[in-house]
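ARCHIVE CARD
SHELF: 3
SLOT: left
DATA:
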Amino acid sequence: MRAAIVAAALEQLAEVGADALSLRGVARQVGMASSAIYRHVPNRDALLTLLIIEGYDALGTAVEEREATCVRSDRVGRFRATCHAARTWAQANPHHWALLYGSPVPGYAAPEETVGPAIRVSAVMAGILRDGKAATSTAGVDPEGILDPAVLTTLLMGVDPSTARAGVLAWVTVYGVISFELFGHLIGSVVDVDGFFEATLATLADGLALSDPATNG
């Protein structure tokens, strides 16, 4: 029943958007009395939370599985695989991506339970950075105070602050390019979207100094 509710809600999400998502509409779609759906999902916010967690977990799984096929010493390959997996998932699930990374739904505040699923992709990227950067005496402290200290003591523990900032920039850039592509904002500026994405990844990989001369040439 959970799977049926999620599937119906995703169809409704594509048709009317997150703002108009309705438990009654989902109930009708799965052939359930409107009163019965409340036994599975108590309110609209709970339904949104369910969809958000499902989305983050599906995206996280896609990225983790793709990155796991790479040679561990090939950090450029792992980075590219991670980014391509995220883009492929977004292209296949544009409305779900929009729910995760588009405009906030008015009146909805994501609960703590969404945090774990939300950082799965970031954790993969952090692992790629961490594998190439030994911990330094400044790890966990950002002298310029740009990053949230909690990020440097958890997700990016052991990564020096300058590399951590570059990693956050890379993550934001990749997700920004994916969103611009999905929402049509590259039209009129970019004629080869695939080529633009590849060039973006190459620039970011260079900026992150991911290449190891001994393994990647």
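SLOT: right
DATA:
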Amino acid sequence: MKKAGDGLFLTSPLLNQIPFILHGFGNRHCGERELRSLEPWNNLEPVQLRQCHSDRIHIISRKPTAPLEGDAMISSRPGLLLIIKTADCLPVLMVDPQKKIIAAAHCGWRGTAARLLAKVILTLVDVFDSKPQDLKLAFGPCISPQCYEVGEDVRQVFAQARFSLNEDLFRPHPEKLGHFLLDLRFANRTQLLAAGVKPENIQEVDICPHCHPDFTSWRRDKNLAGRLLNFISLNPSF
């Protein structure tokens, strides 16, 4: 991943190949004020959701007059800056270079179990006539399976959603009986591959916020944790 914005955020080399988008995965020093102080970010209209760990998706054609509740956004309008906030959960930025469509999603374990990303792709196909093999995606900083301990209750939610409960997804905790280590990236990557996304069109930031002091982690910092900004826009200059 490439540092950008005076070291405030990272960008994906895969998405950097697409000239008509702007994007980034912010670190803990990248707040809205810092982002808005940079060109060309200061000319974009920010759009945020009231995130609720759901599978709710919004198609954004203009800046909403009131916050929308959900966990994914899709837009074809240049100049809108789609912002997803995370603090351990997986942020996903998505582009259809052929149709000039962007999407941003917040994938916690609940949204992942509800197959949010698969539903985003279905929406792109149904509404915009996108082809899954054309899509390019970047996964942002996300808690690693070594740090993401969950209980049997979470495992059962995935079982009810018909996920394969192999050790790539849920590895038994080495010290705590009945506890597991969940791999959020794996769970979401398998959804994308099953939906027809090419493996070479998925790029991952290999950073665990829980382990990295420059990134915010709710599991590490609890109520003192801020939120990381993850963002994407269609560049209005193109």
